[in-house]
Design a protein that fits this description.
The protein is α/β, with parallel strands linked by helices. It is about 35% helix and about 15% strand. The protein folds into two domains: about 200 residues, 3-Layer(aba) Sandwich (Rossmann fold); about 100 residues, 3-Layer(aba) Sandwich (Rossmann fold), CATH 3.40.50. The strands form two sheets. A six-stranded mixed beta sheet has the order 1-2-10-7-8-9, sandwiched between helices. Helix 2 packs parallel to helix 3. It is globular. The protein binds 4'-deoxy-4'-aminopyridoxal-5'-phosphate.
Amino acid sequence: MTIRTTNGRGRIFDNVLETVGDTPVIRINRIAPETVTAYVKFEAFNPAGSVKDRLALNIIEAAERSGALKPGQTVVEATSGNTGIGLAMVCAAKGYPLVCVMADSFSVERRKLMRFLGAKVVLTPRALKAYGMMEKLQELVKEHGWFNAAQFETQANADIHEHTTAREIVGDFGGKAPDYFVTGYGTGGTFTGVSRVLRRDWPETRIILTEPTDAPLIGSGIPQERNPDHTPSAGHPAWSPHPIQGWTPDIIPHVLQEGLDKGFYDELLPVAGADGIAWSKRLAAEEGIFTGISGGSTFAIGMEVAKTAPAGSSILIMLPDTGERYLSTPLFDDIEEEMTADEVAISKSTPGGQF
Ligand code: PMP
């Protein structure tokens, strides 16, 4: 084997925001059954580490174009973390103050990352769920006249996945569509936006949607109650707490509703958080692909699909973020801080530098 050489990207970027998107699709080589070929679209390659960088950038730029966001105006959003981190990057680069409203159930890393990127974080009690977070957002918008990024309702969300995420997939796979596309949902932006393109260009691709077994909102068949402005008017009764941060708030967002109404999924498969955690660990330790709990959960369902998929099938699985923002969560529960017995044995195998 000769040494690997690289040649750069052939351009110089004017700012960090130009580096959003164009994330790689990567083949899985060791942990998928041999009967299928599995691929992941790895969104941790975005500059602030998640798929939500895409929508954060588009929400701000769409609002700049329409005039809805004024120079220097404060932006406010309710977030499970990744949208807040993405918005914090965008607002830092463009000079807007940002306030994020987040339930205190989401990882401490998320709070610190948003603050590190210059944002203010207003916590809401976890008992009030995502719906309570959104009520707080509405109060802040009313009180202060801030710009509401409105990720759960805005067109700018699914649109950016139609114009970037989906186009990248079509471009990277070229003429050969994957047989399956697997995704979960938070706002539903990824699912709705990518599916608009898949249904049009590759109608044979089966779209598999997943949600936590502990929060089967779509699976329950119970419709979401809404206000005339599409915001939810109550929390969804099928929700209970689940460990898949960023997925399935206690509402069916308007952005997701489009995908449901248009029949964009072929199959809905629930996933247990513990399976998501187990697969996230296997992706890291056996493929070197370090993603969060939602990535592991999506992958778990990809592997479920692989069990019954015809031999030779290809499966594309979304991995929304990096595992690094889960160090304080159950994902890392059995990762030791101190040396393990194995490590102590290695240490003792030579005389130097022992405790
Ligand atoms: N995984 C994680 C970790 C997320 O933060 C999000 C977005 N909240 C998603 C998945 C789902 O993405 P979308 O909002 O596009 O449905």
